ABC transporter periplasmic-binding protein YtfQ (Novipirellula herctigrandis), 309 residues
Amino acid sequence: VIPACSSEKATDATDGNKTPVIAFVQTGADNDWRNAHTESVKQAAADHGYDLRFAEGQSKQENQLKALSSFVNQGVDVIVLAPIVETGWDNALEKAKQRGIPVVILDRQIKTDDESLYVTYIGADTYTEGQKAAQWLAGKTEGTAKVVELQGNPGASPTINRFNGFRDVIEDHPGIEIIASQSGEFRRSKGKEVMEALLKKHGKEIEVVYAHNDDMAIGAISAIEDAGLKPAEDIIIVSVDAVRAAFDAMVAGKLNCTVECNPLQGPLAMEAVAKILAGEADSLDKKTLIEDTVFEMEQAKDFIDSRKY
Ligand code: AHR
């Protein structure tokens, strides 16, 4: 599948048009967080008066690579890439570099030996999110718990970082044990499916669910309820994102805690794009990490009305 682009122009995107043409290659549209992220980038581009060309990879790197290649051929001014996985981007980014197209990496990180392939990275501190989830859990359980982990999609930087950050903290809490860890692909339906299987296998041994995002936690909540158990009471649940649906679940007493991962990254991304277009790329930091908050069930009702996504 070649992802759809939002506007059709000929081979050189800037010909006869002074409006900067920015391409945004998104991972997919698989959950509330992702959709809020897409909207934030689109809105920020519109606020800057840019012509935004959008493609989403339907959760496949292959599709994102095709979109990148297409935008390079179109000769857009800047490419913003939210990479589904960390590795495998060098060839595509090398082609952008050869064509003189600067690239901003947004949301998820890439691994490369050649840091000159992108101008700047902007995203959440997903390693710290994993640490915060573990710190909260250590406090809540006084350092003793049997945990099942629902991971995001394999190879994605938030999956790797939330996995490592969590473990680096529980290392100091030997009573916290991860008894199972599986991918729920950052999806609600998959989170439910994986949790059903884990409940069948481990039953009442499971004391805690640590989900790498809220959507999977919400899927797990329905599996827990279907199994006749009370989420947030019989099984403690901590997840990441702090989307509106997580606040709904917390207010309903079904989710204990969510660590924020702010998807409203569009303004920062477009500020970076503006600097690049103004010839000030050198003034940008190589890495900008966005600060996150931790929200507990008890505070949820105070924040729910202000949650837009
Ligand atoms: O990269 C950020 C993560 O990706 C969010 O936590 C998740 O919900 C999304 O799919």
In short: Confidence is low (pLDDT under 50) at residues 1-16. The pocket of alpha-L-arabinofuranose is lined by residues 31, 33-34, 107-108, 158, 186, 213, 240-241, 261 (CB under 6 Å). The CA atoms of residues 184 and 191 lie 5 Å apart.
